[in-house]
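COURSE: Structural Biology Practicum
ASSIGNMENT: Worksheet 4, Part C
STUDENT ID: 0417
INSTRUCTIONS: Below are two proteins. For each, the amino acid sequence is given first, followed by its structure token string. Answer the questions at the end about the second protein only.

PROTEIN I
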Amino acid sequence: MQDNALLSNPLSRKRERAGVRAAVSAPVQNARALRQSPTTAEQLLWRHLRNRQLAGAKFRRQHPLGPYILDFVCLEHNLVVEIDGGQHADPQAQAYDEQRSAWLQQQGLRVLRFWNHEVVQQTNEVLAHVLQALTPALSRLREREVNTED
């Protein structure tokens, strides 16, 4: 199926005739694989975030950024939502998550973390927290729109 997709793109057909295949980076391949096998919590949250359902914000899932693959990210509002399973309770994993969050914050992103069971058992509370994180960004965006109209 992937070959058919490549052949339907004129640029890809041209490369294919020239014997050149576009290389897909390892992070992109990993992100694609993660999108194919989401956890129950990821599936549930994605149902609420996709198609700009939450405050009109565009979320991407399993999005590669730098050395990491982000569970969910809204680039227009600089917000990352991570869903952690039990493996993240390990002290080494916690240290890694702190390092990862620090790097993301250095890139200008805000990071929200939720446990799998929170997303599954308290979906509305998780969505309210995400919405609250989006609200200041939405207010600043609306403020800019008003100021540019003057």
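PROTEIN II
(use this one for the questions)
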Amino acid sequence: MTTRDRPQPPDDIDREFDELLDGLERRDADTLRAVGSYLEDLAAWKAADADNERQSATDTDSEDGDDTPDATETDVDDLEYPSGVPERASVTVKEIAGTTYHYYQWRDGDRIESKTVER
């Protein structure tokens, strides 16, 4: 790009950012580089946060993340769901140190809900 080729904002940016972009255009090159670096870091953080949230939604490990060898998973067939737990909830049954636990996890809007029941 030559000094005459002024960059244009991407077409997919909302027009509500016009005022912000106008303000940035008046800044010096060092400030723009610093803002750009911050925005790259922010985008990476948001992507990692979204990945962590997706992982939490699909993670069937115990709530504390304990993957100790004494934890064994059992197949779940025709379980009765406790009150307050929708039938669409995923269920993981684990036996830990001789005690059986049922881990229920489901989505409620944007939130992930869970319930643990000792059996």
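ANSWER KEY EXCERPT:
Q1: The helical segments are 18-25, 29-58.
Q2: DSSP finds two helices and four strands in the chain.
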